[in-house]
């Protein structure tokens, strides 16, 4: 078992790497700034090694069983509603696997960044500038996600949850001098805060009902205590707390209707996009629901909500990916869709299956994003309409991207096939679902999303790598170019080894992680269904019918993409106005951004704020000023009426005053 101090180092080492880069390397000597990348890689790499040791320990002992540390008291200890707030490390199989995925993917991404971010090494004066800042943010971002994964209680988790949001804001807006990047960072921060408000309400509702826990001698915020008490909570408490937590998860994981921030988040550096989509921010929501699944399964309403939102998002996002021309945005819509698959699995009662898909998705999605970064490094544009023919001079990038695309499409025997098949099998059976009707519905939604996924990922591959080269950045109209890249030229060669080696490593995992981690048979030292048994979950039985159906659907999607964009045997132009209308609807993302920004923000929110501020200004601010004037005028008039100049009036006043004094004197006796 990993010692507790070593478990804290899983968080602490990336944190120290980030602090060292910004506090020591940057102010000390500019000649040392170039080593910030190696410091970050060392920190996250060491955390990865410790995480692997933790996974090995979890295989034998399960929960590490660290005692939490007292933080502060709430109420009187021993009283009915009193408890002690604690902090600690919760290292069990779920958190150990997630920590290994986060730290491992972050290490690979930072190695790739050594090559990709070379263009940001020097500023206009030829000195190192953005380079150390980038690796500082990446290390702190990784540390925040690891803190979230290993948190012992909800308050501790929420603190790291917000830190993940903060560093994603800084990384998405890394090139803050670009208006689009600055706007995307603010959008991501604001939209996810909407979900976080629901998260806070869930925590608040838990606190207001803390008596349910303290009566059992449990802490209402400690995650093990919440899971122990969940079966004894009333349905109302379980439902409202679960729905509040799911609101936060939906915001972080970009689920409908809080999905709009993720496509725009592509304005950040491509390795950042890779890390966000593969193992950190967007995975946090899935992890939260999986971590507290024992609470969710006590509420049929919460489970059905998670399943329906996940299933709808899977189809909704996949449809938007059909019409996108930016290679990173296609992958962004793919991430939203695949996260929908994970929530679908959670909603039908299969947290182990959801985490298995998250595990596989981390590898092939990281691979696809880094492949897009490698392509961009050569042609200096993300617009697939100006690519084509790249496979001739970028064979490693092409082959590894092809592997990632096949895995995403769910083609046997690659990693994506196994986890997607388990999701479909679980949804079809409905054995653990709160409602079998909902389970059947989301199965068909998932199958439709599988067809669209295969279509858009091979549309991406064909448009980017096949056919004739269409000029890259040289063909992009000047008004559409990013100012920072307008001076770049196309380089028709493969990326450097420091960039291609991570692609090869990830491609190996994209091929074998699914089969090895949850194999149907024993593979030497790896037992059958190792991943599911490690999480103490039952693996769904392999269903040959479901496997064939999903494969046929995926092959059909790939075939249609080849006919439309490869051989051009089929053309959508023949569909005429109907397709043009549909394409525009998809290209405009179903007008959700326009709905939010124009209708809700500008018309409803802004107009509401304007009306409230106008009322406050006229009724309160002006009212207070007018009241002061009215009091001054009328009090003056009242006092003036007393000054009549008639002695009898003054005499009455003196008499009344004397009478009041006499009465007061007599009452005191």
| Average pLDDT for all residues | 87
What are the secondary-structure elements, in order, as H or E? HHEEHHHHHHHHHHHHHHHHHHHHHHH
Domains, number = 3
From the helix content, strand content and strand pairing, which structural class follows? mainly alpha
Share in β-strands: under 5%
Described by the principal axes of the CA atoms, the overall outline is globular
Total E-strand runs: 2
Low-confidence spans: 123-128
Rg (CA only): 30 Å
Number of helices: 25
User: What kind of sheet is the major sheet?
Assistant: 2 strands, antiparallel
**Within the largest sheet, what's the order of strands?**
1-2
Give the termini separation. Answer: 84 Å
- The helix content, as a percent range, equals 55-70%
Report on the structure:
The protein is an all-alpha fold and 669 residues long. It has three domains: 1-253 and 269-295, no CATH class; 299-480 and 489-571, no CATH class; 603-668, no CATH class. It has 25 helices and two strands. It has a two-stranded antiparallel sheet with strand order 1-2. Strand 1 (69-74) and strand 2 form a beta hairpin. It is globular. 51% of the residues are buried.
């Amino acid at each position: 078992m990993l010692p507790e101090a070593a478990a804290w180092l899983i968080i602490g080492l990336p944190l120290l790497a980030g602090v060292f880069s910004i506090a020591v390397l940057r102010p000390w000597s500019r000649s040392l700034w170039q080593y910030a990348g190696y410091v970050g890689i060392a920190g996250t790499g060491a955390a990865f090694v410790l995480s692997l040791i933790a996974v090995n320990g979890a295989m034998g002992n399960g929960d590490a069983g660290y005692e939490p540390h007292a933080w502060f008291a709430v109420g009187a200890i021993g009283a009915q509603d009193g408890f002690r707030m604690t902090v600690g490390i919760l290292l069990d199989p779920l958190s150990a696997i997630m920590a290994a995925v986060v730290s491992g993917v972050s290490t690979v991404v930072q190695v790739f960044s050594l090559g990709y971010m070379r263009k940001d090494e020097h500023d206009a004066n030829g000195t190192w500038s953005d380079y150390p800042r980038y690796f500082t943010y990446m290390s702190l971002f990784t540390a925040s996600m690891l803190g979230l994964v290993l948190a012992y209680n909800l308050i501790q988790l929420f603190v790291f949850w917000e830190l993940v949001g903060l560093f994603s804001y800084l990384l998405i807006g890394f090139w803050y001098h670009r208006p689009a990047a600055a706007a995307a960072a603010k959008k991501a921060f604001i939209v996810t805060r909407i979900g976080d408000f629901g998260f806070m309400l869930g925590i608040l509702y838990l606190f207001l009902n803390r008596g349910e826990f303290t009566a059992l001698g449990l802490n209402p915020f400690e995650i093990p205590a919440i899971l122990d008490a969940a079966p004894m909570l009333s349905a109302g408490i379980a439902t409202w707390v679960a729905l509040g937590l799911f609101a936060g998860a939906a915001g972080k994981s970009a689920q409908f209707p809080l999905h709009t921030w993720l496509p725009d988040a592509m304005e950040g550096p491509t390795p950042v996009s890779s890390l966000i989509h593969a193992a950190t921010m967007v995975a946090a929501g899935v992890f939260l629901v999986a971590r507290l699944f024992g609470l969710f399964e006590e509420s049929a309403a919460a489970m059905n909500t998670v399943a329906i939102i996940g299933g709808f998002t899977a189809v909704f996002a996949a449809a938007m990916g059909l019409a996108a021309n930016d290679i990173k945005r296609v992958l962004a819509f793919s991430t939203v869709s695949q996260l929908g698959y994970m929530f679908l699995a959670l909603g039908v009662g299969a947290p182990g299956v959801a985490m298995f898909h998250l595990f596989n998705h981390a590898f092939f999605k990281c691979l696809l994003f880094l492949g897009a970064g490698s392509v961009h490094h050569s042609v200096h544009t993300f617009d697939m309409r100006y690519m084509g023919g790249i496979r001739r001079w970028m064979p490693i990038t092409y082959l590894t991207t092809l592997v990632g695309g096949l895995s995403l499409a769910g083609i046997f025997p690659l990693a994506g096939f196994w986890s997607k098949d388990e999701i479909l099998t679980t949804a079809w059976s409905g054995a653990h679902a709160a409602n079998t009707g909902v389970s059947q519905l989301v199965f068909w939604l998932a199958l439709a999303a599988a067809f669209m996924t295969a279509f858009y990922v091979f549309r991406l591959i064909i448009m980017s790598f096949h056919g004739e080269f269409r000029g890259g950045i040289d063909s992009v109209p000047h008004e559409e170019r990013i100012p920072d890249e307008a001076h770049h030229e196309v380089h028709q060669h493969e990326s450097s080894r420091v960039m291609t080696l991570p692609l090869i490593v990830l491609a190996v995992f994209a091929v074998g992680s699914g089969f090895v981690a949850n194999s149907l048979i024993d593979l030497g030292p790896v037992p059958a269904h190792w991943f599911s048994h490690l999480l103490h979950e039952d693996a769904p039985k392999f269903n040959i019918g479901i496997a064939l159906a999903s494969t046929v659907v995926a092959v059909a999607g790939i075939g249609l993409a080849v006919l439309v964009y490869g051989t051009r045997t089929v053309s959508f132009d023949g569909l005429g106005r109907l397709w043009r209308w549909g394409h525009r609807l998809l290209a405009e993302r179903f007008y959700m951004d326009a709905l939010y920004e124009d209708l809700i923000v500008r018309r409803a929110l802004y107009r509401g704020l304007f009306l409230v501020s106008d009322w406050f200004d006229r009724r309160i601010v002006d009212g207070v000023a007018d009241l002061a004037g009215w009091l001054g005028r009328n009090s003056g008039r009242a006092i003036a009426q007393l000054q009549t100049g008639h002695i009898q009036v003054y005499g009455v006043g003196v008499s009344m005053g004397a009478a009041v004094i006499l009465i007061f004197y007599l009452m005191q006796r």
